[in-house]
Write a structure and sequence with these properties.
With about 150 residues, the chain is α+β, with helices and mostly antiparallel strands. It folds into 2 domains: about 30 residues; about 80 residues, Immunoglobulin-like, CATH 2.60.40. The chain is about 20% helix and about 30% strand. The protein has 1 helix and 7 strands, in the order αβββββββ. The strands form 2 sheets. A 4-stranded antiparallel beta sheet has the order 1-2-7-6, with no helix packed on it. It is flat.
Length: about 150
């Protein structure tokens, strides 16, 4: 019986042909699926939102670039804040040679806690950002008081 010494790092494997073939296959698959994935993502797209908080309020900052103020509706239903946009359909005469984004209808809902003063909700749209300010009720504001040591 003869013994064989295994030295995995002494022989050089030529991965170039393998890598080129795999890359070609993956490129082909991606070129077939990417357009449909992009379309699916655009179909279900909603504007992104950042939620900030300080001692007096919550701030909901929506990325609504491309939306007009008149297309956006903000309303309350029970304890939900609903932000909804309705965009007219593009005209059939518009032909696009390439499209990577579109402005679509959307609806987002946020459950409001009891510490929000619903009578003082404000909204403004500036530079593609819709900011909704949800002011905290007086009783929910943190109390800051200096206590003297006796």
């Amino acid at each position: 019986m003869s013994s064989v010494t295994f030295r995995p790092f002494t022989q050089r494997i030529k991965p170039i042909a393998f890598n080129d073939e795999v890359k070609h296959i993956l490129d082909h698959l991606w070129s077939q699926t990417a357009p449909s994935l992009r379309h699916l993502a655009q179909q279900n797209a909603q504007p992104l939102v950042n939620i900030l908080k300080d001692d007096k309020a919550y701030y909901l900052n929506f990325n609504v670039a491309g939306y007009k103020k008149e297309q956006i509706n903000i309303h309350l239903e029970a304890d939900k804040l609903i932000v909804k946009a309705t965009v007219p359909s593009p005209e059939e005469s518009e032909t696009k040679s390439h499209q990577e984004f579109s402005v679509k209808d959307f609806e987002r809902a946020f459950l409001l806690s009891e510490d929000i003063d619903v009578n003082s909700i404000q909204a403004k749209q500036e530079n593609g950002i819709l900011q909704i300010t949800l002011t905290l009720r007086e009783k929910a504001l943190p109390v800051k008081k200096e206590i003297a040591i006796l």
